[in-house]
Each structure stands twice: as C-alpha cells, then as structure tokens.
Amino acid sequence: MIVGLRPDLQPCLFNSTLYMKVNGKIIIVTGGGSGMGRELTILLVSKGAKVIIADIREKAMLETADLAGADSVHPYVPDISDRTAVESFHEHVMAEHKMVDGLINNAGIIQPFIHVDELDYHTIERIMNINFYGTLFMAKPLYLIL
After folding, report:
1. Left, alpha or beta for 93 (phi > 0: left; psi -120 to 50: alpha)?
2. What is the pTM of this model?
C-alpha cells in the first residue's frame, strides 16, 4: 500500500507486472523537474494521468512538461518548506483542478555524507524543512480527500 494514494489507485499485480490505474487521474508529483520526479511524471502521463508538478526549479519543470507532453502537465513553483506557500499552492490546485487523486512526495535533498556531529545546524534545519516538513505540508491538506 502506498500512503497518500486513494485505494482505487493502489498498485496491483496484473499479468505479473505492477501497474496503477491512473488514466484520467490527477496526480501531484513534487520534485518533478528532474531525476525520479521527471521519470515518474513521464510515466504517469504515458499512462493517461494529468500531472501537477511542484518544484522550485521552473526551467526544469518546463523541460519535464515538454518531455512528458505539455497538455497533461501543470507546473507550479511552491517552496515546499514554506507552509504558507504550500497552502497557497493547494488552494490554486483545488480551484483550477477541483480534485486531486494522488500525491507522490518525491522532492528532497541529500545531506553531505559526513557524520551528523560534523553538520552545522543551518544544514540540518534546511534538510528537515524540505525532507520532513515539506512532505508533511504537502500531504496534510490532502489527507481527507485521498
């Protein structure tokens, strides 16, 4: 089971392959401008989903939209570590799309590969604000509808 995905979108086994019923669904992908987020966006669009990308890198998002199919991708530029920005993002998404069927919280940053005692507090706070609070801020408003 994937947390944050409606039951009808949960992955299931069919002919020995894993797939999701996403045709016609609206899925938010954070960090969709590059890497795994880009690949998830392209895959979801190829399966018929409309994807809302939330990423702070607008140019990268637009490249993803071009690769996936711009008609099925809706880019937004919220800073997921900023609760007010995320609340505004959700308000815009619901006003424009009326419904969200799933959320893939993919955005995140990696801390330097050093011992925690060598990390300064600014770096720790930045990591927590994006990786923990960003995930929470994105998921909480959708909890009751997913």
Report:
1. alpha
2. 0.85
